[in-house]
């Protein structure tokens, strides 16, 4: 990559890392749609996959004391279990249609939470099984593992540091489990690692700024920001799914 491209990518990574540190999610949501306009998804997605690990570790250094492993271990296990099923769907089903359906569900549920409707779940262990499994399926099929877990924690009204800590821990576990597959399949190469290394300073700056800003943001504003981002992600999922289907139809 030339110097201009590295600078552009660094700015994108800085904003993405800031978003991830502030909310607990959003690194790929912010970065991938921009980067794929400049490089192939086979390059941009592995770069983001590699960079996601250090940004999450940076966040957890600040939030480790808030992680509730006893609460989320089943969620993590079911997310891991669901991913192979998601890969199966990717091969045999129309993933774009799945993105539209899931996107609509995200918009409806996220909007309901945004306007104040929530029903706190008392038995989280039981509900963690389908939520984690659905998250894994979506991760394996559409790379959208986040929404079910994000909406679950939002519905429970978790304090912002607990929300971010549990969410980042969950995502870090899933990403670490995916990395070996990327390496074996040849998606993570030395060129990818070298590019990620050049982007590391921007990532660290964005993550540190996000952590500092998150400490000052009001709880109510934090929850609204989370829900607005997730509703927007639902709209993006619907739009990209419809666009892909229309493009495919025109080609045929």
Query: C-alpha Rg, in Å?
Result: 18 Å
Structural class: mainly alpha
Low-confidence stretches: none
The percentage helix is: over 70%
Shape: globular
What pattern of helices and strands is seen along the backbone? HHHHHHHHHH
**End-to-end distance, in Å?**
35 Å
Oligomer: single chain
Number of helices: 10
Q: What is the number of strand segments? A: 0
Mean pLDDT value: 85
Any chance you could write out the topology, listing elements then pairs?
Layout: H1 3-23, H2 27-35, H3 41-63, H4 69-92, H5 95-114, H6 124-142, H7 146-155, H8 160-184, H9 190-214, H10 219-251
Architecture overview:
By secondary structure, the protein is mainly α. Helix content is 83%, strand content 0%.
Summarize the structure in short.
The protein is mostly helical. It is built from ten helices and no strands. The longest helix is centred in the C-terminal third of the chain and has 33 residues, at 219-251.
List keywords for this structure.
about 250 residues; 10 helices
